[in-house]
Sequence to fold (645 residues):
Amino acid sequence: MKSKNIAARALRSSLFWLLIVLIFFYLAFPFYWAVNSSLKTEPQLQMTPATMVPRDAGGDFAPSLQNYAAVFANPRFVRGLINSCIVAVSTTVLALTVGSFAAFALGKLRFRGKTPSLYVILAMTMFPQVAVLTGLYAVIRTLGISAIPGMILSYLLFALPFTVWVMTSFFKGLPTSLLQSAQVDGATPFQSFYMILLPLTAPALVTTGLLAFIAAWNEYLFALTFTSIQPSARTVPVVIALFTGQVSRQEPFGEIMAAAVIVTIPLIVLVFIFQRKIVAGLTAGAVKG
Amino acid sequence: MTRSTELVKHEARLAYLLLLPSFIILIVIAFYPLASVFVNSFTDKEFASARAVNFVGLENYGRLLGLTVKPLPPLTDPASGQIQRDPASGEPLYERPVKVLPREPRRYKELRQFNLLGSRYVLGASDRNFIRGMADTLAFTLLSVLLETFLGLIIALVLHSRFKGRGLMRAMMLVPWAVPTAVSSRMWAWMFASTRIGFVNVLFQNLGLGDGQIAFITEEAWQLWVMVAIDVWKTTPFMALLLLAGLQLIPEQMYEAANVDGAGKIRQFWNLTLPLLRPTLAIALVFRTLDALRVFDVFQIVLAQKRYSVASFIYYQLIDNQAAGYSSAASVIIFFLIFLFAVLYIRVIGGVQNEE
Fold:
């Protein structure tokens, strides 16, 4: 009986690890392929069949860092990294601040017009980006703001509804009794919001923040349009898309992949740091025996 | 009594105050662009042109959505009055669709032919590209969101359990979402290359499928699947991370209680995890569906004008055809479609919808 149990557990645990390995490969392999391609020279990229690691004609392992050197030698790329950081951080901070105010009201306070407000906010992101492109451009020109604040504002168009909706659902999930007991203790609703509820929704804040940050970091169409007359404000995706090879009309694929690897690694580090926070929050209080 | 109404009033005032910043931002950035899309959709406005703008009523909508079904009469031999048949298969021959589809006021083109009750019909559309784009976008949305939800849920559940290296896996999980779409689409296009410089062709050949020359991107039968594959890889992390955060909010005491009650893992999932995850699931679904219906980058970068999603059709009409009015009408149609989906989801699965 006992040994049967042990066998079953061993089987379960090895199936579990198999699943983890499968997930890992599925998620990581295409990125590995980008890394692999970024270490190849143009002739190596054209080899058939494609090789799992960069190889020279004799079949020996022969990675090349020339793509990375070319990317870092490009001042526009470095400039783009800085621009992307400014835009993505500002968008995230603004969306989280303004959005969690609204979400608290929508999730925990009693007032008329709650459902219409939610739908109006969501409706803002129901148009394809292309559709609002020209109108938004006109607004930004009229307000006389330059490209970077212009991008931050326009990214709120998708970041804000997303934050509001996700945070609202998380606020709703928190027990109302928390709020009531705080009120009994004499706290104003706003005090109970930032002293009690906000810390409790830390996992939600981190999650929405990460997702909004990455969405802003990766946005391409608005960035391309708004920086067309101000190239110094270009963000990384635009810079990469506008890479041109040394030979005209040839797409520098290796360099594009090198740039992709460079812009993705900071994000992985960021997620690695913040993922602990996703675990914190509510479960932190629960003692697991 | 008066104290409690006072409290309610105070609460409502605070609520409006808290909502104010969001609404100010949204009004400033969204009101004019969205309103102008609606207005332009009833005109023949051209993009970046000085030509006078005319009000055209519902003309744009009619042209986009124009569908018609006409019976195709069989061809008869003028001499004998007999129905002509294909000499090889014996199937009857039919009139060419061009002859029966209306030309006025709009010209309809053949979308497909079908048989019904022994007669042959032709389905015509006044804008084939839009109708096809619409059908492709819906199919794409359905397939990709379904797969993403399924995979995302599995990944979230796995990453919710304790194991060594979980932190690393959680960071790894977001890699696909972190690669800019403009770049990841190029990367996938390269992996799906039509010769053996592409990974997928090499893989298929090693598995004994195909000859290493499958044209994934140009062959119609493959195109939609390629789009779904790219999108599922790219956005499953979005789903997984949201669901993981939702799982974290389920208090552990609940599972402990269920353990005491002797509920098995599978019963726990259906009776405890899934119901409690429903609000998160609803929101994740709403935003994924919304994004999928507006899909642009992948279609534009990988397929360009070979095949359209609604958004890349709009882009083509606006930028290449300068038809601002026409493309606005297409935007309004997709807006209503998205709105419909959003309301449907929220009604069916719940989420943040209020009980009042």
Notes: Chain A has 14 helices and no strands.
